[in-house]
Amino acid sequence: MSLPRICTRCILPETFPGISFDEDGVCNYCHREEKALKKSPQKKALYRDRLDELMRGLKGVAPSYDVVMAYSGGKDSSYALKLIRERYGLRILAVTFDNHFVSPMAWENITKITDSLGIDLIRFRPPWPIVKTIFRHAAAEDIFPAPTLLRASAICTACIGLIKNIVLKTALEMSIPIVAFGWSPGQAPIQSAIMKTNPAFMGQNTKVLKKAFPGEISKEMAAYFIPDSYFEEYRARFPYNVHPLAFFEYDEEAVKKDLEKMAWQVPTDTDTNSTNCLLNAFANQCHIDRHHFHPYVWEIANMVRQGIMGREEGIKKIYSGQDMAMVKYAKEKLGI
Ligand SMILES: [Zn+2]
Questions:
Q1: Half-sphere exposure (CA, 13 Å, Cβ side) for 273?
Q2: What is the model's pLDDT at position 276?
């Protein structure tokens, strides 16, 4: 991808929907964030206190686990897992969604980290024919509302939607009071970093995900969605969603170094935007072809703005072009 005009402060490109630049080349999204960024250190401290209080209050109360964590084996969720385990000493159940594209090195990392932290792991693996159908459908067209696609590709959104449903379903069925995610500080805003889930809202999310697929596919996926009856039946059990990396210290290199102490290795078999998924490069390429901006640019621009990532590093991540060998690998596997 050749370098388009980009914001001189973050790295959002001129092709990003709704963007405009001032005379210094700074984008309207940067200006919109200025106030919030100033208050960010105090806000992060407040959220750390809130999480400490929440975790202390819920520790050991549930019959089985305190936390169910969506665990991909990538650096962010590995780091979040370590943080929660070591800071609070909670009983954690990690759930890995096997989308048939988890890299072999990521699997090694998953076993090393869960063994080293003493965490139970469930590997949830739907059979290949249905996974293939889901991804082929998401590759062929944008199946989600436009605002969703500002932040991620249709393929990633489909996969993450399923993961969210599966972990929430697990939390409800096992009475687990906290669901944790390893979203990077650029991926999800601090405002949603500690949030009690609400049956009506979660029901709406599930509906959107179901509706993204044609009836016959969605019927085959039925077991992965939260059944309608749960929203009433388990009303009192709806857990807290937390994503702690939004408000704890986060430095990509420091995170990697910290994980390497537990024998986690930076995968050499994935593309530069992912430390676990072999489908990612193709998902990005589909998105770039259709929308003319990189699906990770929102996340990376946020991190550059927050000073968590250097601007040059961000530009390299987003504008170096896709690894075409990885794109080809995924296309062939999906028969596209
Ligand atoms: Zn900007």
A1: 30
A2: 84
**Interval between CA 151 and ligand 1 midpoint (Å):** 15
- Mention every residue, 6+ apart, whose C-beta is less than 8 A from residue 244: 51, 80, 83, 84, 180, 193
Q: Measured in angstroms, how far is the CA atom of residue 59 from the centroid of ligand 1?
A: 41
Q: And the tokens for 256?
A: 């990697």
- The three-point CA angle 268-270-273 to 5° equals 115
Q: What is the pLDDT of residues 268-318, one digit of tens each?
A: 887 777 778 999 999 999 999 999 999 999 999 999 999 999 999 999 999
Domains and CATH numbers, the chain: 39-266 (3.40.50.620)
The predicted pLDDT at position 2 comes to: 61
Ligand 1: centre distance to CA 27 (Å): 4
**% of the chain residues with pLDDT over 90:** 90
Query: CB 82: neighbour CB atoms within 10 A?
Result: 21
**Closest Cα to residue 312, out of 8, 28, 23?**
8
What is the strand order of the sheet 240-242 is part of?
Answer: 120-124, 92-97, 67-70, 178-180, 240-242, 194-196
